[in-house]
Write a structure and sequence with these properties.
Elements lengths: L4 H5 L17 E4 L4 E4 L2 H8 L5 E2 L15 H5 L10 H10 L4 H6 L1 H13 L6 E3 H6 L1 H11 L6 H11 L13 H30 L5 H7 L1 E2 L2 E2 L2 H32 L1 H9 L4 H11 L5 E6 L3 E3 L2 E3 L4 E5 H4 L34 H18 L4 E2 L6 E2 L8 E3 L1 E3 L2
Parallel strand pairs: 2-10
Antiparallel strand pairs: 1-2, 3-7, 4-14, 5-6, 7-10, 8-9, 11-14, 12-13
Helix pairs in contact: 6-8, 6-16, 8-12, 9-10, 10-11, 10-12, 12-14, 12-16, 14-16
């Protein structure tokens, strides 16, 4: 039996696509979870482009007895759970903060933060990439955009870690103590972050500033200001999504280059390949492996009839290894002719922060290359990954610089 890197790294056993396997079918029903798994690239892309049939409001299908009190309030105003027309209006409110010009203008600040973080690493021949750079960099950037103290990032990390510490899929049909504990921990993390942001939202109502949080507080939707819960949850998503993907992206691309040394040499020699290496790492090790949708009516996916009011887990990471779309899908190849990966989604919910994540990755990687001629994993100190099966991302990556 062949041992894959996924086995060596101890990645979640459910992530079969990281072990050189293709799904038997592009869609299957998981009776033990009460939901459908969708693996095919074309199927997932079609679903993401059809919000009328496949709704983002997944909370409506979660049985009330599976969710602790207060969960519903935390979904209010969450742009991830919204469908048109409200989604389009909410997205428009924040899109001005992520225009190409606004993002491009952040490049000098991103470079400054990267250098400051690297300067702060104790002298020696090693660094812990996630702790030293991949986590703090995007958190500082998004915190400064929102207008919350970047110095509170260790607080954020504790809360965010609680949200994603579960090692199992949530079942819609089975209630058990382990799942209850995981949901409770996740909600505790969400609530702590929401309470923290709520304090800042209340401050902005009294004392506006030049920041994104103030813009959300002052924004109007159909002539009415957003509610406190809507502003808090909107800010919550921006803070979360604004750093988690980039943290995993940075760690993953450095790891991909370490495990494919020939590409490390080529990308360092030709920096025009940096963006392509980032895109290929997003395909090869997709940070958010899954997205969820619910059916609003009976429909057909890959020739299979799916009834109305069903939950679908869309395995973006599996779709990014679909051999119908990607030639040699298990090969890390930044120069592949086409790379239509789904790491940032598709359709109306395409990640609004994707240009920022790509910019942070490009700037940070170039500065790392300039500063360290060698970045290698350390024998006996393998990378540690996120334990949640819905994520594929490095959470600890010790590197030697000699």
């Amino acid at each position: 039996m062949t041992t894959t890197l996924a086995d060596t790294w101890g990645l979640h056993e459910a992530q079969f696509w990281l072990r050189g396997k293709q799904p038997e079918k592009p869609i299957e029903f998981a009776a033990e979870l009460g939901m459908w798994h969708v693996y095919g690239h074309s199927e997932i892309e079609a679903i993401l482009r059809d919000p009328g049939t496949f709704s983002s409001d997944t909370s409506r299908l979660v049985p009330k007895d599976l969710m602790p009190d207060g969960e519903q309030d935390m979904a209010t105003g969450s742009i991830l759970q919204l469908d048109p027309p409200l989604h389009n209006k909410m997205r428009k409110l924040v899109s001005r903060a992520f225009t190409p010009k606004v993002v491009a203008d952040l490049e000098p600040r991103i470079a400054t933060i990267t250098r400051e973080l690297l300067d702060a690493i104790p002298a020696g021949d090693r660094l812990e990439l996630v702790e030293d750079l991949a986590y703090p960099l995007p958190v500082i950037v998004i915190a400064e955009l929102l207008g919350v103290p970047a110095s509170d990032r260790n607080l954020f990390k504790g809360w965010v870690d609680k949200m994603f510490e579960s090692t199992d899929q949530v079942s819609l049909v089975e209630k058990n103590e382990k799942q209850d504990a995981a949901i409770k921990a996740s909600l505790e993390g969400q609530k702590a972050l929401a309470d923290y942001l709520g304090v800042h939202v209340d401050e902005r109502r009294k004392q506006p500033r030049e920041d994104l949080l103030t813009k959300l507080v002052e924004a109007e939707l159909d002539g009415e200001r957003l509610s406190r819960s809507e502003v808090v949850n909107f800010a919550n998503i921006l803070l979360l999504a604004g750093h988690i993907t980039t943290t995993m992206l940075l760690g993953n691309v450095v790891l991909c280059l370490d495990t494919h040394r020939e590409w490390d040499t080529r990308v360092r020699a030709d920096r025009s390949l940096v963006p392509a290496a980032i895109e290929e790492s997003l395909r090869y090790l997709t940070p958010f492996a899954a997205a969820a949708r619910t059916t609003t009516r009976e429909t057909e996916v890959a020739g299979v009839t799916v009834p109305a009011d069903q939950m679908l887990l869309l395995w973006l990471a599996a779709a990014n290894r679909d051999e119908r779309v990607f030639r040699d899908p298990d090969t890390f190849d930044p120069l592949r002719a086409e790379n239509p990966h789904l790491a940032f989604g598709r359709g109306i919910h395409f990640c609004i922060g994707a240009p920022l994540a790509r910019l942070e990755g490009r700037v940070a990687l170039n500065i790392l290359f300039d500063r360290y001629p060698v970045l290698r994993t350390i024998p006996g100190e393998p990378p540690k990954f996120q334990v949640n099966p819905n994520m594929t991302g490095v959470r600890e990556l010790a590197l030697t610089t000699v």
